[in-house]
Amino acid sequence: MDLRVPHGWQRQPVWMALTPTKRTGHVTEEVLSVYRDHGVIPKSSRSDNHNRTPENLDAYQLVEPGDVVFNKMKAWSGSVGVSEHRGIVSGDYLVCRTDGATVDRRFLHYLLRSRPFFEEYARRSTGIRPSQWRLYWEELSQLDLPLPNLDDQRRIANYLDCETGRMDRAVAASGKQLMRAEERLAAEAATLLHVDDGVPFTPFPGAAPRGYIPLWLAAKTFSGKTLQSEQAQESEQETPYLKASNIGYEEVELTGLDTMWASPTECAELRIREGDVFVIEGGATAGKAAHLLEEPDHLTILQNHVHCVRASDGFSQRYLYWVLRAYYGSGWYPVITSAVTFGSFPAMKLRALPVPNLDPHAQEATVATLDGHLTALHAVRERTESFRQLLNERKQALITAAVTGEITV
Questions:
Q1: Is the C-alpha dihedral spanning 103, 84, 91, 113 positive or negative?
Q2: How many C-beta neighbours within 10 Å does residue 165 have?
Q3: Could you tell me if 404 and 114 are in contact, meaning their C-beta atoms sit under 8 angstroms apart?
Q4: How far apart are CA 389 and CA 44, in angstroms?
Q5: ∠ at Cα 366 (365, 372), nearest 5°?
Q6: Beta-strand pair 301-302/237-242
Q7: DSSP letter (8 states) at residue 66
Q8: Which SS3 state, helix, strand or coil, does residue 10 take?
Q9: pLDDT tens digit sequence for 277-336
Q10: Which of 66, 77, 207, 294 falls 20 to 30 Å from 124 in CA-CA distance?
């Protein structure tokens, strides 16, 4: 790594500042995660980490405050940090103790998460493609750390704590504005469609409150094919299929689909079409709906963990999408889902879902209003994302300049 060391700074190889350690058997400690944006934090503090923690934690490694944790497979993308917490991490991570006599751990945290080091992690990782890259200690240990004296390290760390803290608070504030905009849309949808009026739910298709009809009268509903592990029959063909993870909050992801074997009859019956509305059957996002706005460019069928809703005469697909989205956004589903470990929203309950029985003109007006609010939400989301990216770029540039001596702090 070709970094100019300012006058008075020293170069110290990583192997002199860090010592790999592997302490296992601490299964009762809190599980930690290594985030690109947040460093090493308790896994329970975030809701966006969907990696399953195994039941057997014997191989998990102890991390103590001041230890450095590297996700070997994702270090190049920023999954590195000095921990402020005690806990355990995957046995596949690299955990190192730090030499507190020569290195301030906050300065080290910023240094190891600066752009030049990310580039070196990528260059020194081995593997055929990025998803398989791994950074090993033998390569990492040869990197040089540009280090001022301890007092200067602490002064730089204090400066970066202050400046990056201001940026993080600005990003958090913009995120709260976006959250409020999303909550306003959810409230507007719930109000227009009367799903927040305490509508009683009955699991028996055919019964519905006054002014409502059960979904089975407004649409045809069906679920997809169960994934089979047996050898394919001669008449079956390998066919892409849609699963729960392909269902977004507004869009359906149709790239990189998995495949299963299906017969011509199953392909004809379970083929998805433009305009279909999909509802996730189970898990943490049971009830989440998405609307397929364009015809897939290849034959795609449905997996059994996703319900398909197709409007009957007199009902609009877009209207039914907004009804289903309104129920999900109002937090209505947890009340009616069957829950053991995760919620389950079976076909029987979906078919019995009360749908406001509006005439086609009223449906059209409701859809126009909600689509208009959605367009405004998209604009807020785009501004928020652009602002977040800009601040993150400035934050990374500031960190790099401070820890490499490009600017005087």
A1: negative
A2: 10
A3: yes
A4: 25
A5: 90
A6: parallel
A7: T
A8: strand
A9: 999 988 878 888 999 998 888 899 998 899 999 999 999 999 999 999 988 887 766 555
A10: 66
Angstrom distance (rounded) from CA 160 to CA 148:
15
Q: What is the Cα–Cα distance from 184 to 188, expressed in whole angstroms?
A: 6
Q: Please report the sign of the dihedral spanned by the C-alpha atoms of residue 165, residue 167, residue 173, residue 178.
A: negative
pTM: 0.74
SS3 content of the chain, % helix, strand, coil (to 5): 40, 20, 40
Question: Does residue 143 share a domain with residue 216?
Answer: no
Backbone angles phi, psi at 170, to 5 degrees: -65, -40
Token digits for 153?
């390290």
Note the pLDDT tens digit of each residue in 135-176. 999 999 999 999 999 999 999 999 999 999 999 999 999 999
Instruction: Note whether 209 and 354 are same-domain residues.
Output: yes
Residues 197 and 141 in one domain: no
Does residue 226 lie within any of the structural domains? yes
**What's the CATH code of the domain at 341?**
3.90.220.20
What range defines the domain where residue 320 resides?
A: 191-360
**Last residue of some domain: 342, 360, 378?**
360
Q: In one letter, which amino acid is 275?
A: G
In the chain, how many domains are there? 2
The C-alpha atoms of residue 340 and residue 211 are separated, in whole angstroms, by 33
DSSP letters for 193-214:
TTTTS-----SSTT---TTEEE
Structure token pair of residue 401? 């300049």
Q: Is 146 left (phi over 0), alpha (psi -120 to 50) or beta?
A: beta
Closest CA to 106 of 60, 164, 59: 164
Say yes or no: 247 and 323 in one domain: yes
